[in-house]
Amino acid sequence: MIKDDSSVNTTGTDTKMEILNATIELIREEGFACATLRRIADKAETNLALVNYHFGSKEKLIAKAIGMIVGTFDDAFALLEDESLTPIERLKQFFYRYQQHLQQYPGLAKEMMDQSRLILCSQHEYVRFSKVMRTEKLLGTLREITNETDETVLSGMLAQLYGAVFYPVIMNSYLSLGGEEPAQVHLPDLKHQVEMLFSLYFHKYSQN
């Protein structure tokens, strides 16, 4: 279970953490589509009223769960600190490892993109999300690679890279669903897609 070291050992906090852990476990086991408030309450062995009391809405609960899930991707973020790698290799390895983690939670990539409305409309959520995602470190790595100083350009590049990394994970998730025979879509494996992305996106920088 994912623990919150900042929690205070009170009954209310314990119940809140149990609900969060139950949410994360349900997402890992069955995906976001199955993470209804009622099923979360059942898994946490609590009642629906307490779930609503602690989180107010499913949207807020899922947002908190996503933050806690991404906060466990430490080995991916640690690659951004590996000075034995070139900046472009650090970023490439980060995104590859990040994709591996996303695949462990069915629907996580799509849900993170869906949460962008909530994040961008709330200054508090944006600051919290940026800290979880180590945005400043990622922008710093991009700055090393490109020598770009315009923060707007760097933020745009980061958004484009995340979109390019998330989309294949979402596509793979859809193509793996049962039911109707899927269209004949042939995608390279995810590692190869990251290699392709970086060879095209950073081509001019790798020549410097």
Automatic annotation (TrEMBL):
The keyword Transcription applies. SUPFAM superfamilies: Homeodomain-like. Residues 13-73 form the HTH tetR-type domain. Keywords: DNA-binding, Transcription, Transcription regulation. It comes from the Bacteria. This is HTH tetR-type domain-containing protein. Residues 36-55 bind DNA. One of its GO terms (molecular function) is DNA-binding transcription factor activity. The keyword DNA-binding applies. InterPro entries: Homeodomain-like_sf (IPR009057), HTH-type_TetR-like_transc_reg (IPR050109), HTH_TetR (IPR001647).
